[in-house]
Each structure stands twice: as C-alpha cells, then as structure tokens.
Amino acid sequence: MYVVSVINYKGGVGKTTVTANLGAELANRGMKVLLIDLDPQTSLTFSFYDPDDWRERLRDARTVKRWYDSLRGDDGPVTLGDLVVSPGPANAHITGTGRLDLIASHLGLIDIDLALARGVANGEEYDAELFRVRGALARALHEHVLDPYDMVLIDCPPNFNVVTQSAIIASDHLVIPARADYLSTLGIDYLYGNVQELVERYNADARRFATVRRHHKVAPGIAGVVFTMIQLMAQRPIAAHHGFMDQTRALGLPVFPTALRENVSLYASNTPRGVPVVLRNRLTVPAVRDELRQLTTEFLENLQPERAAA
Ligand SMILES: Nc1ncnc2c1ncn2[C@@H]1O[C@H](COP(=O)(O)OP(=O)(O)OP(=O)(O)O)[C@@H](O)[C@H]1O
Ligand SMILES: [Mg+2]
User: Fold this and answer.
1) Chain segment 22-51, per-residue pLDDT in tens
2) CA of 265 to the centre of ligand 2 (A)
3) What spacing in Å lies between the alpha carbon of 63 and ligand 1's midpoint?
4) For ligand 1, is residue 89 a contact (CB within 6 Å)?
5) Which of 110, 124, 102 is nearest to 58 (CA)?
6) I want to staple 274 with a disulfide (CB 3.0 to 4.6 A). Which of 89, 197, 213, 301 is the partner?
7) Which of the four pLDDT bands, split at 50, 70 and 90, describes residue 233?
8) pLDDT tens, 262-280?
C-alpha cells in the first residue's frame, strides 16, 4: 500500500482537486483507493457528498474527527476502518475492479488540532505526546482491515499543524500542487525545508520514545510538484508561468511534466454531483481529462516500488 499526502500550506492551489481526480483515475485503472480528508474545510468530502447527506449520514458517526477524538481518549476506541464510506455517484462511473472510498472530514477537526497541541504539559512529557500524536496515523493505517487498499491519498489542510504533520509522517510520498506564481514557488522551498525538519525531529524522537525496538524510519519522498491553474497560449503555458515552473525545477525538486490548465467552469461545477472531472465522460474539453490521466501516469512512474513493500 502506498500512502501519499497532497500538501501545500498555501491555500487554494488545487490540493483537493488533485486528490479527488488522482484518486478517481487510479480507481478507474483498477486500484483500490482510500481518500482521507484531513481538512476541516471539508472540501474533498463535499465534492463527493451533498452537505445534507453528510449531515444525516456521516457527521456524527463517520468522520476522521472521531478518530482524532479517540486519540485523546474522548471517545471509545475507533479504528479508521469504522469510518470508511463509498461515495455512490463516483463509484458508479468507475469500471472494472477499482474502488474509490473516503474517510470524510468534519468542521470540528479544527478544534481537535488546537486541543492536541495544547493538551499536554511542556518538557519531556510534551515531546513524548507530540511524538505519539504525530505517529498515530502511520500506525493506524497498518490496520488489517485497510490491507486491501493499494493507495491512500490524504488531502491536507493549508497549514502545517499537528494533523498535517501526522499525515506527512504516515506518508511514503508527497505531492505538492502549486500555482505558477511568485509566492507559490517561494513557498515550495520553505515547505520542503519544514518537511525535512519534521522528519528529522520525528526520527530522533523515535530513538528517545519509541516503545518498539526496531522503529521504522520515516522518509517521505517528493513524488512531484504539480502545477495547476496554468494559462495556455497555443497549447503551451504562458511565458510567466513557464518561468516559475523552471525556477521550481532549479530547486532540485521533481516537477511533473504535465501541468493542469485553468478551466474555471469545468472545475467549479460539481455536475454530475460527486463525480470528479476525470470521470466525466461527456466533457466539453476532453484535453482537461487527458492531462489528468497523463498526470496520473507520471505520478505512478514516480513512486518508488521498494517503499510499497515497507
Ligand atoms: N485547474 C483549475 N482551473 C480552474 N479552477 C480550478 C482548477 N483547479 C482547482 N480549481 C478551483 O480552484 C479552487 C481551489 O481549488 P482546491 O479546492 O482544489 O484548492 P486547495 O489547495 O485544496 O484549497 P484549500 O487550501 O482551501 O484546501 C476551487 O474552487 C477549484 O474548483
Ligand atoms: Mg483543499
């Protein structure tokens, strides 16, 4: 099983859109995919479920908030497997043996984050608790009931708090969506530095606090930066965008050759409801679907096979 987080603490860069479409296309190619929405804004959840449906069927019993609650002992034992749902309309568009499942989010996740960060004393006890919380998602994803999944894709919120950190620690790979502008490209370098710092700290803490003797060393790799909302001229990114894409490559980070073009009307409309763009067969701009498919191929090529067995 691969675990991949889609991250960038810059907001509105296409994280949720990339997560939904990558997941949908992988499922359409026969993979069993689990999406996890870790963003209290719940955009990924609402791209698959109607808000009324979410309120009636998911809000109280089946969101990732319950699992984070259980980490603090606020709720009885909850496993991730208890929370999985299968969005109907998206799965109706998936042919063959693939499947697209979801662990939904909840607006209350924002309070969890604050509580997790605040709920422990300072000093040694605080460090040990932070280590436990940061590693909790990684441990939980090893539940046997999740074994059938080939791929877990985690949609992260636009921040670097402890919930996001737990996703990074659980991941084999990271995908970084970005817009081709000055602030986004500046942010990628900074984000990468913070990821490295977190991972080093976590592995050092493992030597101090881990209760198992041979602790698995965490080392998420960057699968790639994907540029989104690109403007095209004669089928190529406009010069301004090209410049920022080249600057990012110069940082030494992998950048997916395929960038996603801007198409506000296609991406903004969730019609038919709950079906990601890549699965919509009657698309007015087939090139949009083609580039999402091509990105998926490039994504699979960039995953390290040896990590999958770890
Ligand atoms: N290629 C695109 N062209 C046009 N609009 C897009 C494209 N990709 C995403 N969008 C739109 O841009 C907005 C932000 O996208 P999205 O929600 O995927 O970003 P995000 O990084 O997850 O945001 P947040 O940080 O708030 O979670 C959404 O309204 C989405 O529909
Ligand atoms: Mg989002």
Assistant:
1) 999 999 999 999 999 999 999 999 999 999
2) 18
3) 22
4) no
5) 102
6) 89
7) confident
8) 999 999 887 788 999 999 9
In this predicted structure, the answer to whether residue 112 has a pLDDT above a threshold of 70 is yes
Give the closest residue (by CA) to ligand 1 atom 8.
14
Query: How many angstroms does the Cα of residue 177 sit away from the middle of ligand 1?
Result: 10
Average pLDDT of the chain to the nearest whole number:
90
Task: Give distance in angstroms: CA of 268 to centre of ligand 1.
Answer: 8
| Nearest residue (CA) to ligand 1, atom 7 | 229
User: Which amino acid is it at 25?
Assistant: E
Which domains, from first to last, does the chain contain?
2-308 (3.40.50.300)
Does residue 270's CB lie within 6 angstroms of at least one atom of ligand 1? no
What would the pLDDT profile of 84-99 be if each residue is shown by its tens digit? 999 999 999 998 999 9
Non-local (6+) Cβ contacts of 117 within 8 A are 161, 162
pLDDT at 310: 42
Which H helix or E strand runs over 218?
none
